[in-house]
From TrEMBL:
Source species taxonomy: Eukaryota, Viridiplantae, Streptophyta, Embryophyta, Tracheophyta
Pfam families in the cross-refs: RVT_3, zf-RVT
Species of origin: Trifolium subterraneum (Subterranean clover)
Name of the molecule in the record: Reverse transcriptase zinc-binding domain-containing protein
Ranges for domain RNase H type-1: 322-395
Gene Ontology MF: a single term: nucleic acid binding
Residue ranges constituting the Reverse transcriptase zinc-binding domain according to the UniProt record: 194-258
Lineage: superkingdom: Eukaryota
Amino acid sequence: MMNSFWWGHYGAQNRGINWMSWEKLAMHKNDGGMGFKHLSTFNLDMPSKQGWRILTSPNTLIAKMYKGKYFPNCEFFDSSPGHNPTFVWTSICNSKFILRVGCRWRIGDGNNIPLWNENWLVDALPLKPINNIDLTYSGLMVSDLMENDSKEWNVHRISAMFDQPSAARILATPLYPSVTDDRRLWRGESKGEYSVKSAYRICVQKLIDTSHMRVNGNWNLVWDIKAPPKIKNLIWRICRRCLPTHVRLRDKGVECTQVVSNAVNNNNNAQDIIFHILQQLSKDDSAEWKAVRIVASYPDSKTQEPSARKWRKPMAERVKCNIDASFPANSDQVCIDICIRDEHSAFILAKTEWLNPKSEVHIGEALSLLSALDWVYELQLGHVDFELDSKKVIDGFHSSAKDLF
């Protein structure tokens, strides 16, 4: 019905010609589809949002009610529909796989994170213990892999329990002393909160195999065109051979007369039509095109290259702290450079600091800002302007919402 509505014209009575199946239309735009929703898949994302609330807010009234009725003696992920469940609870149970894939732990003290069968590493891949590991390790928490007197990994214990790749992944996971509470995060959003949009992407990847229907190519060239949506839609239809050309109509078993315009005569396909139209347009606009080329080649053209942004000194009685984080390819650490200058551009202080382990770019930039804030606070410099080149960190710093990553 939805496919007929999309391809139909002139009211609901005209079903039109279904040039493409709904499965192909529902593919992501980057794969050659239109990005429409699979309703059956989308309907799983809504109850999984309720499951996320039960998982992350266990003290709410509805979470306590579900736990008391359906999983009083186990955790949410270990629960089952049970006897005579409600439709809502059945739907939540059917969508739990989305939460398993999409959520992970933010490591605080590690006392609430089970070591096994939980996503607490960034890559969410399972850990591989060594073959002779004791079965008594099954009840361990992530905190058991840390040092007792500091928030650092216990390298000896980790190396004794896991194979080399798993141990390297654990040791590459940063631990931040400022983060003290364990909390579940949604990996699909930078804020760490569940969203139906990101859950839908996970659900499609798990349930629907579109690898055999994808059309390779940079489809962003079509969707990023600065043109009205109907023009983008037309170009997409041309690329996907969804126009009523003579060849395509004949493929659909539609008889059409040979008395057609020159553009679509002689069994032309969609590509021939668009090339014909472009050829006509190029002839009409040839004079304008030549004029543009002449202006572009003129040596005294006023077109200027964008100038590099210059450093600006701070206002009176203030200092400026410039911060930069670099990620050397031959190192497993993040290099932080901090430079402080006064209102006359005179050098005051500078330092370089190395952080271990290497992290993602925006995390490294955020840590460099945190290090600079601590250092400036210790120096008691008064009014300070901070300058760095990470827009994501700057926006997150000024945002009222917390970025849980």
